[in-house]
Amino acid sequence: MEDKWVHLTVAPDQITAEFWIQVLQDENIPAMIRPSDAVSFLGVSGFGCRMQVRETDLERATEVIESLKTDESDSAAQA
């Protein structure tokens, strides 16, 4: 049976999305950017990128991404 890929979140840009994808993969959670969101004539998309994970990993992936968002918010508040 094939895994169903579902929406996880929208990263603010492709660089952030790539970083979040790497963090998820480091946690053994396969993830990807919707291919149509990473297209840019200038090389890297500055627009929001939708991220997807397997449906079976959605809960765990959400926890990982939310902790990243919290860490980033805390770092910005301290600056």
Q: Tell me the span between the first and last alpha carbons.
A: 48 Å
Fraction in helix: 40-55%
Tell me the name of the CATH homologous superfamily: Hypothetical protein rpa1041
Might you state the CATH topology name? Alpha-Beta Plaits
- Let me know the number of strands: 3
Describe the largest sheet. Answer: 3 strands, antiparallel
| Helix vs. strand class | alpha+beta
CATH architecture: 2-Layer Sandwich
Protein model, in words:
By secondary structure, the chain is of the alpha+beta class. The protein has a single domain (5-78), classed as Alpha-Beta Plaits. Helix content is 43%, strand content 20%. It is built from two helices and three strands. A three-stranded antiparallel beta sheet has the order 1-3-2, covered by helices on one side. The radius of gyration is 13 Å and the shape is flat.
